[in-house]
UniProtKB/TrEMBL annotation:
Family assignment from sequence similarity: Belongs to the class-V pyridoxal-phosphate-dependent aminotransferase family.
Protein name as annotated: Aminotransferase class V-fold PLP-dependent enzyme
GO molecular function: transaminase activity
Pfam families per the UniProt record, alphabetical: Aminotran_5 (PF00266)
PANTHER family noted in UniProt: BLR3095 PROTEIN, CYSTEINE DESULFURASE
InterPro entries with a match to the protein in the record: Aminotrans_V_dom, Aminotrans_V_PyrdxlP_BS, PyrdxlP-dep_Trfase, PyrdxlP-dep_Trfase_major, PyrdxlP-dep_Trfase_small
Keywords from the UniProt entry: Aminotransferase, Pyridoxal phosphate, Transferase
Residue stretches making up the Aminotransferase class V domain: 51-348
Keyword Transferase: yes
Cofactor or coenzyme needed: pyridoxal 5'-phosphate
Amino acid sequence: MNVSDIRGLFPGLKDTIYLNTATMCVGCAPAREAYELAVERWSTGRFDWMEAEQAGEEARGMFAEIIGAAAADIAIVPAVSTAAGIVAANLPPARSGENIVVAENEFASNYYPWLLLRERGYDVRAVAPGGDVVPAEALSRAADGGTRLIAVSAVHPVTGFRADLASISRIAAGSGAWFFVDACQAAGAVPLDVKRDRVDFLATASHKFLLGSRGMGYLYVRPGLIGGLQPVLPGWKAARLPLESFLGPDMDLSPTASKLDASLAWFPALADQAALAVLRRFGIGAVLERNARLALHLRNALEAEGVDCLSFPELHRSTIVSVPVDDPDAVMARLRHANAVVSVRAGRIRLATHFYNLEEELDRVAELIAGR
C-alpha cells in the first residue's frame, strides 16, 4: 500500500491533521467528483436516477464484502437508528419476563429504539459500565432465558473500547436472543465478520470509516431471519421486482434483506459507490492492517510524551483513542491553532485514526496534547 497514492485521493488533508473520522470522514476525491457530477446533471435536467439506483446496488455488494456477508443479506437504510427501529418493530409485544439487554452508555441510536420497547412490556435492562466499559461478562449477568435481544457497539464511540462480539453472540444464543451490533465506529476501521461472530443484525452509517456521506447506511440481517421480518416503512424498493412494482394492487415482497430498504438517497449512493471503491482498490485487509498500525503508533507517541490515554488489552483496541486531560478547552485551542481536527467526548480528547493519516501527524498531535 503506497501512502502517497492514498494521500492523493484526499487533497483536503494537505494542510490539515484530521483525527476526527469518528465524527465524519474527510471526503475522498472520487466521492466528491461523484457528488459534483450528480449536482451538475441534476441542475441541467439530465440526472439519471437509474444510474444512482445501480450505484446503490454496487455499494450494497461492496459493503457486504467488508463484513463477510452476501449482498442479499444487506438492506440500505439512512442511519443506525433506522436499522434499530426496524429490528425493534419486529419484536412482538412482550410476555412476562421478556427483556432487552443493552449498555446504558450506548450512543442514542443504539439505545432509544430499545428503551422505547418498555412501552410494549419489555424489561429493558440498561447495564451500567464498570469504569469506562461494559464487558461481555456484565451483559451475561444481565441476560437470562427471557432475554430477546442484546445490543452492543462493536466499537464504543467515546472510549474506543472494542467489544468481544464472538463472546457476546454466545451469550445471546444461550438466551435465545437476537444479537444486534452497531458498527458505526467499526466498519472500515477494524475487522468484522458477521458469520464468524454469529451476528444477527449489524448496522452502520457510511459517513465515518467507510468514507461515504451522510444519508447512506446498511443493515445486515442473518439470512435465516429475513423471512420472518416485515418492513416498517415499505416502498417500491421492498418489492421482489422493484421496477415492476410502482403501483398496486398487489404486494410481492423481496425474499432478500432489500425488503427492508428505505428509499435510496441518490446523491449519497453515488458517493458511496465511489468511496467504497477506494477501500476495494487498496484492499480492505490492507486498510485495516494500516489502521491498526497507526492506532498503535498514536498510543506509543502519547506514551512517549507522558500523556495517559484509556488503555485496553489488544483484543479490545480500536482506531479510537480517548485521552483524559485537565483542560480540554486549552488543548483543543492548541490543536485548532495547528490545524489539527479532533473532538471532545465526555470531557476527553477523542482521536480517531484512519488509513489516510501519517505517522508524523500522530507524533505532532501527541506533542500538542502534551503542551509542546
